[in-house]
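Running log. JK asked me to keep both predictions on one page so they can be read side by side. First protein, sequence followed by its tokens:
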Amino acid sequence: MERPRRAVLLALIAAGALAVLTASGRIRSQRPAPSPGHAFAIPSPERRILVEVLNGTTRSGLARSATRALRRQGLDVVFFGSTESAGRSRKTLVLVRRGAVSNGARVARALGTGEVAERSDPLRRVDVSVILGEDYKPPPELHP
């Protein structure tokens, strides 16, 4: 009867030691290292520009590439997708929905293209809307 009791006691001691080592950080689970450039700093509220990116072409993945490029430039892209009239835009449009026109110019510079226009829309919850056209060329490392 003494032997099973000893085995249980040793198992409890080993489990406790393992818990202490894990809690102290000596034993770490194997997690993959974060990929470089995956997370981007969020700008301060006074410098933040909320952007939506819409693909106005038939090229798939273009809005995702533009989103990555804009986020690398410190812009806060809150939505990306396709326009209802996909395949019809030749030129990239940067539409300022609210705030200063300079916000649209900053977005256009970050994209490397785009005509900036002021199109106020109080129903949209973004500062700038981007409708990507055929003239937008994503950086090679972000190409879809």
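And the second, directly underneath as requested:
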Amino acid sequence: MTPSIMWLATGAILLALEAFGLPGIGLLFIGLGALATAIIIEIGMIGGEDYISQGAAFFISSAVFTVLLWKRLKAWRIGKEPAYSNMVGDSATVGKDGLTRGKEGIVHWSGTQMRAVLAPEAADALSEGAHVTITAVKGNVVSVK
């Protein structure tokens, strides 16, 4: 198997893993770097036996793709909708020690514990086990009522 075919196959596998298997966007950049390396070898800029130059081309092209695409892809993935806005309107249960206005507490939502504060329209205090509704998400803290 020629080196350009090996780089092409490596790039295809990495892109497939990104698309179907592993979350995140990191494999995309190195997959594109492998494809670029295959093209560079195929057009003759690097010899098929020059493995050091192939490695350097792979590293440099992966870095270039990362610099050019990282922010654009991150913005595209997040989109205009605030992150985790799908939580708003869902139910949660107040955790240990309850919730008191002005203090941060814990709620249980979808099998996990979340930091929480009382929404302005909520009661001044809620006891442990109370069912609440998530009204907003700011960073890693939810507002509940």
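Observation for JK regarding the second prediction: The chain has three helices and seven strands.
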